[in-house]
Amino acid sequence: MNNDSENRLLLKKPSAWLPLAMSFAALVMILVHAAIFGVVHHQDEGTPARIFQLIMVAQLPIAAYFAVKWLPRRPTQALVVLALQVVGWIIPVITIIWFESL
Asked: What is the pTM of this model?
C-alpha cells in the first residue's frame, strides 16, 4: 500500500475529516453572511460571530484526539492530515481578518 492510499484511509476517520468539514462550514457561513448582509462592522458581534467562534473552538479537541490517537501509529500520514486541518482552520480565520480590514 502506498502513502497516498494510506492518507486517504486515514482521512476516512471521523476525527480526521470532521475538523475539515467544520472549517468548511464556518467558511461557507462567513461567505453567505457577507453575501446577504454585506460587510458591516458592529460593536456587538452578534449570533453569527458566536456560532463561528464555537465552530472554530470545537474543532480543537477533535484534532487533538486525532493527534493523540494517530501520531504514534502512523506519524507521517497523521502529520499530513494535521497539516490539512491546520490549513483548514486558518482559512476561515484569515477570511474574517480580511473582511474586518475592508
From this structure: 0.88
